[in-house]
Protein: Helix-turn-helix transcriptional regulator
Organism: Mycolicibacterium rufum
Amino acid sequence: MTTVLLDTDDVGEAEAALSAHYAKVRLSGVPSEAALSARIENTDLGAVGVQRLEYGHDFDYEIDPLDDLLICLVHSGLYVQRPPMSGTPDVARPGDVVAIGVDEGVPFGGRVGDGRYSMLVLERHWLNEVVAAAPGDSSGTVRLTGALPVSREANNHLAGVLTYVRDHVAREPFASDSPLLTDALARYVAASVLSAYPHTGLAEPTATDRRDSTPALLRRAMLYIEEHAAQDVLLTELAEAVYVTPRALQYMFRKHRDCTPTEYLRRVRLDHAHRELLAADRATTSVSDVARHWGFLHAGRFAVYYRECYGQSPHVTLRG
């Protein structure tokens, strides 16, 4: 569902609305006779928010620490994020994607230009669902260490992800109804963010992780996935269920099954979808219905996975 978070010319009203939705913020640099012309629309997709922002005047801001991570694509205008201590500011121009509020628990400031922006709002804990914190990191959390992507290619890929979520996923009325879909989206966004920005996570297993990657533990992990396929299966919860680290879990699947835990979960859900298509009445059931039921956001991608696994289109299976 899309709601208007902010639509005002008044700086005071904008401060109040932004403070209520993000964190306490102070705006400056807008002459008293000028109109801010600020508008923000938000679509809530569970663990991910999708926002369209427009500002009709440049302004400076100071903001308290953010709970969530914001990923912002600049369409027109300019976004400047100043580090809390002295240092080089992060500057994003049209076409750039910038991570806002990278330093958790730290206030920051900057400048926003007259222009248009798109933004994803991601709960930070989803980064830990993709990679694990490095050994010895007392915080136990994965953090971004930079606000700008590691390369132009990484920037463009993330811009494409944001655009796809904004223009396609956010427009589907069913998108926020299924925990399987919303949590799959959060993992997809988190993985895309981690592939684009430098971070503290460690994807490679340690020596202890390798020792913990036994066939017996793998069987327990596979059984857990099979018994919970109709629910959202978080990487951290699966690791806790078999008493290993997320890195060990990923390593044991690669070593013994030549896939990731997420890929194995997808295979199990594909099998359920296949059985559902075989038993379904094509007069009342569509391939998209079945795909959504089993957590596949994109019906076209579901069809590709299905064909790779079963050698035919899911539409052929449904027609019997």
